[in-house]
Amino acid sequence: xxxxxxxxxxxxxxxxxxxxxxxxxxxxxxxxxxxxxxxxxxxxxxxxxxxxxxxxxxxxxxxxxxxxxxxxxxxxxxxxxxxxxxxxxxxxxxxxxxxxxxxxxxxxxxxxxxxxxxxxxxxxxxxxxxxxxxxxxxxxxxxxxxxxxxxxxxxxxxxxxxxxxxxxxxxxxxxxxxxxxxxxxxxxxxxxxxxxxxxxxxxxxxxxxxxxxxxxxxx
Length: 219
Known about the structure:
10 helices; about 0% strand
């Protein structure tokens, strides 16, 4: 899950994508008020599915949390499945929007990985529901589940290959290395973002970054 300099979609574009993806087909809001209502529904869905899971969560629970009428839900979404699919993509974009600008400002490849992991751990600490939602999407919205991980790792791959071309890291860094880093970040997010931790995100990121730079060889 971690994101990102390599080439990444600008944040303004990412925001536009979220608006297009958020509502059911043909139901994207056209006014600022509509976008605020849509945002409220997605945030409420994150809380509902995060607390109760997809199968126990309900449309009435979402509208109650959002403070809107039941009919308002259907102005934007056709079903519970539709809002869940939109939420998976929305949360993936939220992670990217949180991490991307920080990573793009990093001075070199290793700093980018450290900052990316630190930012991701911070995001998970503030949005613990993301793991339950993404995990459930494997069975409810497999396309969204695969899209989340494929696009996340592809951003890492692009970043590594660009750094390799600049001579900052080993020349053969590519897809396998990207999946290794992505997988590591997922489990670090569980232990040090989702579960309670006595260590700060910056400390965890520094330890992992040292391992990326120097491996596990004895010193």
